[in-house]
Design brief:
845 residues, alpha+beta, eleven-stranded mixed β-sheet, 26 helices, 36% helix
Length: 845
Amino acid sequence: MAANLKGKAKIDAARSITAATGESYVDPEVLFERASRDDMEHYTAEMLARCAVYAATELTAWDGGAARITIETIPGVEPDDVAISVLSITDHTVPFLYDSAVAEVASSCGHIYLATHSALSISDAGQPDSHTQRTFNPARSVSHIQIHLAQLPAMLATDLIKRLSAVVEQVHVIVSDWWLMLAKLDAVTAELARDEDRSTNERHEARAFLSWLRDDNFIFLGMREYRYSGEGAAAKFEKDEGTGLGILANPDILVVRHDTDTNPNAPEMLAFIQRPDILIISKASSKSVVHRRAQMDYVGIKRFDVDGRIIGELRIVGLFTSTAYRSSASNVPYLRRKFDKVIDQFHFDSTSDFGQLQEALNSYPRDDLFQIDAPLLARFCEQIIDLANRPRVRVLPRIDLFERFVSVIVYVPRDSYSSAVREKIGNYLEKAYEGQISAYHPAFHQSSGVARVQFIVDRSGGTTPRCPQARLEETIRLIMQAHALENSASPSSKYGAEDGNALIKRVDDRTVFLLFATSRKEAGLDNSLQDYFSGERSSKLTFGWSAVRVPEEHRFGEVDLPRKWTLFSVPISRQKHSSTLHFTVQHLTTCTKENWCDLIQELSAEDAFIFVHGYYTSFTDAMLKCAQITWDLKLKAVPILFSWPSRASFINYNYDRDSASGAKDEFIEVLSALKTRPNIKRIHILAHSMGNQIVLDALAHHAHTTHPLGVCEILMAAPDVDSDSYRKWAPKVKAAVTGMTLYASACDKAMMLSKAIAGNIPRAGDVPSDGPVLVPEVQAIDVTELGSEMLGLNHGLYAQKRSILNDIFVLLETGKRSPQDRLADIRGVPDGASNPRYWKYAKSA
């Protein structure tokens, strides 16, 4: 009958059973007072009575010194007929004991059947007083904890006891040093107020923040002092041995990371010491095992001597309390000053705008609020406010000062969010930042229609990859598109995949992201990505970027596409598209010139590589060729396609030539836009065929101006430019750039055809019997020996032959001007001359 009892009736029945045994016991009402009633439903009164007797046995066995920790099986205690192990901890009553023990058990043992914590008085006879538990003398108070677990093998039980002993030891160290830590904090706070003449708003706010910490907003786990001495290159920052309190009394416990805690010249700490900030708030490198399992918070406070000189730092580790997270951020010292700095950067047109900013600040993840600097917070808040008007993917990454982790706050449309999407985004961020997701914190903003997830990506060392925000956002958009298609009954086929599901495989390390600028007209919304731009001329320049995936079976120098079969020039069949065999256009988007320039800035590269295609080339063909060259060259530069209006038709040579003639202003506009980005130090241009007419004409006309464009290298591949114009333009261009290289071939059939169409005027990309067209200070290289296929045009050797791409790579990477210094298979002509007229590839190449 006792098995069916509930609540107090079950407790009363357990008390009667224990009293009848004649053994010592802990009153079941006191022992299970804090236990979950749901958990107790699985126990009979007899089981609870056995636990009460066992608790008295453990209390009697405790010697009153160090904590007694045991793991045993209590005969007859099997909730729902499941054999369990009972963990018992008996110790002096101290704060943090129970929650620390439960956190340790939960982190390693999984399911807990029941957990209870009782504070008991010990009688003069050393026995627990089982009837008067409500009031007791703290000096004679004992905590008894029981945690019921799935049955543990002896080896695992021994290991758990060892770990719990270390946790309990830390609890006692913290409690023992608690008042010493508060006294140290008070002393440092007083130091900041000592010299009122030097007192600043920063100092005042720092003192207010330390007082706020002390007012039950922070659990102090440890303190340690660091000394700062010297100046400039002789500056040192090192531990003040013997000053540790709490867990930091142990010198092996590091606050930041190994090289920063032990290196007296750690650049991050020297940078903090030498800047005006009085406080640093961040995360410690290790998790707390006391109170709750979380990354410890780290607060660093500068120390000053009587003359106001910096002499060191008091380093504090602990945990912000729940009240610290619940209170309004605008009322928290240190944060409120940061808010003021952010607000000062905004100009509000209405109280509504101000309210949106306040909401963005107060709802921002609290840990990040403490750590982020005001300028970055302002930039992020501006983007968050924009989400209220247009829900979209937004990614806000912040790299920790010590490069230990990356905080990435991701916003996605609420209706598109799911745990599966969150997991896929997390997997991508792990790859992007070369780390591991250690935590994620979702939140939902109904008013703006977005879901927010903060990811913490832990890093194990080295320089953290700098991932441009625009690239992170676009990749996550692709992930969400892929997920939607994966769960759609009829996936779209407009992305060039055989069944629409290739989007699922889009986001990987074989994707080339490239920017473009084009003077072509858009083809129309009904066209696929591959036909986004037509061959017709537009009155404006369109900017954008695209993502192209290079297949696993890629052949060097080739743009791998599905094969076509024809009969008498009529298509009869086409190979099925495969993302592992063929180049795939994953994404294409247009944007404003300003956003395009911002993207270049965010990419943080110092070099830009512009590809200008030739005659008979569609936009997609040019885009894929640019991606292929970028991939094969392993370029570190920002790849940019400049695409001018070509109808991609053999019979439209004259149309294409006129389009090229009219494109020089747009090309200069692109160069000028790049020049506005301070991170771009060098611009390299690779022009093919008729694209050289644009480059040479534009730069020759711009050469007389007083506004240099920063062009470094110009690589002219098979230039379809008449030799007279080439000789006129090239010297002017050379005066304004670092270097020019011509790649020409005597076997280029396209040059022969162009020569015939142009009235038999020789082309700069041809090589007559006496050698290529020569211009002073322009390196001319004859590549005839690299390609002379009978049925081939031999017009695209620059992107197909490894020898030419290798030469381009070495030139761009090293800046070596002499071709024979770049590759051994390039020879001077005449052979052996100290100052050759031109260069050529050897026959063995």
